[in-house]
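Re: the request from the purification team.
They wanted to know what the chain is likely to look like in 3D before they choose a buffer screen. I agreed to run a prediction and write the result into the notebook, where they can find it.
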Amino acid sequence: MEIVEYTEKWKKKWDDFVLKSNNGTMFHMQKFFDYHLPGKFEFNHLIFLEKGEIAALLPGQLKNGLFESPIGASYGSIVTNDVKFSFAMKLIATLLDYGRNTGIKEFMLTPAPLIYEDVQNQNMDFAFLWSGFKYDLHYISSAIKLDSRTDIISRFQPTIRRNVRKSLKDPDIRVEINERYEEFYPILLANKARHNVKPTHTYEDLIMLKTLLPDNLKLFMVYYKDKPIAGSSMFFCNKNVALCFYNMLLYEYEHLKPIQRVMYEVVKWSTENGYKYVDIGVSQDTKAENPMTPSMSLIEFKEKFDAKTTMRNTFYIKL
C-alpha cells in the first residue's frame, strides 16, 4: 500500500469512491471543496492506493507540519469501505510511515460521527487509538434516529406535540421545500448577529453549493400568510443522514412555534425518503473558554424531539 497526493486527474474516481464508501459524506467530496474561492485553502488531499486502486482517501491540509482533516468542511478523516480490523491497522500504519517519511509532525483528524456509517464499524477508531493517536476533543451532537413504523409526533414531548398539531391545523401556516435562499439568508444573518457571530457560509457559498451538489441541499421554509418566518437549511450528507445545518426564525413570529413545525416536516420528509437519522448538529457553548463545554439549553431543546447524543471525536498524534 502506498499514499499519493491528489491531483485533478483523480477527481471523478475520488468522488465515486466517496459515494460508494462506508463512511464518506458530501464534505469529503471534491465537488464540495470546489465551492471555496480559489486560494482560500491550499489542500493536500491524500489517496491510499493498493495495487493501483483506491483503498482509502484522506482530504485535508498540511500546514506548518500539521496535517489537519477536515479543512473547509464539517467532517474529514479517512474515507474507507467497510474494512476489516487488520486492514484498518494497515491504513493507519501506512499513514504514519508516510508522515514520518515526508516530514509531517502531527495529524489531527475528525471523522463524521458513527451514525454516518452505512455499516457501523469502529475498527478505524480502535486502530487510531492502538497506533498511538489520542482523543483531542469531543463535541456533543444530537441526532434523531428515524423509524417509519412509529408516528413522528408521538415521539416528541407533549408541549411540542401540541404546538405541531396546532400549526398543522392553521391554514395560514405552510411549509415549502424550495430554493428561496434570498428569503432565508437575511433572517439567518439577523439570528446569528444576536450572538455576535456570522454563518459559516455566505449567501454566495450556499448558492454555489446548491449548484455543485443540487441533490444534497434542500431548503425547508415556513410561511405565515406568504411571509417567510422560519426555515431549515438541510444538508443531506450521504444516504444515511440528513443534517440540519442552519435553522432560522423571525422572532416576532416565535409565538407560532415555526421551528417546531419545520423540525416535524424535516423528520417526516427524511423518514419518508429513507434516511436513518436527522442530525441536529453540535451543542457547545461557544462563549465558554473550554470548546467542549455543552450548551445545556440547546441539548434539552433537541431532546424534546427525541434526539439522542452522538459524539464527534477528534484524533491527534504527534510523530
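For the purification team: The chain has two domains: 2-138+314-318, 147-275.
Please add any questions underneath this entry.
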